[in-house]
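Q: Can I see a sequence and its folded structure?
A: Here is a first one.
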Amino acid sequence: MGQPYALQLAQKQRDVAGTLDTHVAADPWLEPVPSPESGFRNKAKLVVGGTKVAPTVGILDADGHGTDLRHCGLYEAGLDRAVAALPDLLAGAGLTPYDVPSRQGELKHVLLTHSPDDAILARVVLRSPGQRRRVGDLVEAWRRRPDLPRLQVASINLQPAHAAVLEGRREEVLTPDTTLPMRLGEVTLHLGTRSFFQTNTTVASALYRQVAAWVDELDPGSVWDLYCGVGGFAVHLAAPGRQVTGVEVSAEAVRSAGRSAEGLGPAAEGLRFVTDDATAYALGSARQERPDLVIVNPPRRGLGARLPEWLETSGIPHVVYSSCAAATLSQDLERMPSYRVTRARLFDMFPQTRHHEVAVVLSRHAGGSLGPEAAALP
């Protein structure tokens, strides 16, 4: 921060390209996709501190006391309004913040997600269920505020442990709606309370469009989308005559992905979602017809050892890899020497930081030179 944005973006491009340099076929890089410099974040993960009558929302300081961040410049406009109003709403509901040093109190976190249609998914993390009525009061007070984004989904999450853990296993949805629609152009994804979605809606939309364009150029008859989450890539790739299988270990995310597919019409006929571990699904595919193209979007730690080794021996001509850590992408490519990067683009999902998102097309080659499959990309 403090460095001009154009220089930030250029430095990220150099760093990521340098990390992947030994794995590219030629110069595969398109221009990086920039982000708004501020007001881009669709999520707020807020630690609640302070007191019952004067709560803070933000982070904790070194002594475990609340530091207020309600006017952070990262939030989208609607989310900014919601965060600014939240302390007054919490105080009005009579919720007591959890005090880390004394281990007293109930309210630990509030987790907000904002949609392009100015709606909110709000998760209230409590130590115990005794404050359920007060959370209900909070929901009703929010809904009486026409100046705030619409509260479409609200839930209580229980996290009883005194530990630096954001959420617990038990969750109760308080609203008739259980998913937050995230409209991305002609596609609408549905986010459940535990669903993963990129923090930057503008750049995420560009990422999905770019990958869909690359895949359409290659025109595969069948695609696996591994680590598919709520179906972001899979739904964007659905097309008449194409078989697309999304694989995700979270059953809730798979249910949300199914809802995301509902509005696609005939394009959804070849689209299906499976609840399974990505590696287990791929390694168990010996009895199945293997796809023409695989998309992987793993967590920061990458694919691990077994999935890259399987891809290396699979004979699949193309892999699209979306990564939030070029270093682990490079490590995975070391286990996949038959592939080279033939298309690549940086997506500045996290401006004002050194973090990045990068998407690459990997094309199989033989004998150290690119085969005819790679030439299919203009």
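Q: Show me another, different protein.
A: A second, unrelated one:
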Amino acid sequence: MLIKSRARELDGSAAGGSPLDDGYLDRTPYFQFILLSLLFPMWGAAAGLNDILIPQFKQVFELSDAAAAFVQSAFYGGYFLIAILASRFIKRTSYKAAVMVGLVLYIVGCWLFFPASHMATYSVFLVAIFAIAVGLSFLETSANTYSSMLGPRRTSTLRLNISQTFTPLGNLAGIILGKYLVFDDEASLEQQIQQVEGAERQALVERLLGQTLLPYKYILVVLVVLLVLFAITQYPRCRPKAEVLSKKAQATVGETLKYLSTNARFLKGIGAQFMYVGLQTAVWSFTIRLALETHPGMNEFTGANYMIFGFIAFFIGKFPANFLMSRFSPAHVLIAYGAIGAVVLAAAAVGPAQWAIWGVIAANLLMGPCWPTIFGRTLDTIEDKRYQETGGAILVMAIVGGAVIPAVQGVVSDVTGSLQVSFLVGAVCFAVIMLFFLDQARHTRTAGEQEPVPAGQG
């Protein structure tokens, strides 16, 4: 009985789909796919809360814009350092096992906010944020690739786009939790802190830092529920048959890196993903700060509304993108999005201050399809699927752009004395994404390849 059960797990048929030779399934197991997609808003919520923590920590710890951006450096640095380890764990076990480990580590990271809020030092909060990122690295390394493989290969980009549609819901939940649980609807944090001294100031700082842990209490409850659901749900392994039948498939990290280093299209995809994650993170990191800078007298509680508008725009923007990619080449759609995005952010950076925040919010409409399309197209360049888990992990490592680009924008802001002008950094990122998809379209046309089937075609 145990042998039969194990065999059924290996071929995936008991979980709602039969595996093909390349590891993809002949059909999508919808319950498992939906449950997996529910992980995507969980890292969205963590990212959204970072955008609340940055203006909070800037005032409480009296930081420069560059130093405040270290929140993102700790967060995305955790992804970068752990992704390869996560991929090797997946190769030795399964995608489901990596999801379980990621959920446990995420729970541990959230719990660390409790002692961090009492110790009240910036470095301890960064450790807690880094710990959360370690768990999320396991989740994203497994879930992004797994989502693309839970069904036929020709619709892999569609599935990942659908799963990624859940991410902005998490972003929105994170920013709403942060607005109502972390911020007060009083004077701005800068004014509150400047008005008190001595013991009264210390008490205010302790109260403000204590409020930072409140959203993580709610996240902990959801994480425990997801952990239980994954523990009791059977999932297909989605392994290429060659990997199951031959030990030759067990490529080392060195062999994988050698193979991938000769794949020029894969390397370009890494660069594009680096710039996109940096763009997204920088825009979100400084949206509230831009609202405060361009609207004197506004407090963080009200400024968070602009972040909510941005996440709503990010979510809404995915739907016309999916529609357009069902009618036209995804590469051509992203070329247009990249060009328009570069113009919009450049105009926000150098145009009238009162309109800048709306330009930044409009840019969110254009970011939605970037990550899943870059990820799916780049992953498909790995023809030898023995290297897929590590290749997916390296793509996740490109998230380190979220640690670098916001810091670069922070430095530009500090040097120029204008946070608004620093959004030119995001315009450059959009331009690079446009160039990447121009190259993709040119390669597809030259090679005579058929475009992967996008949304609505599979």
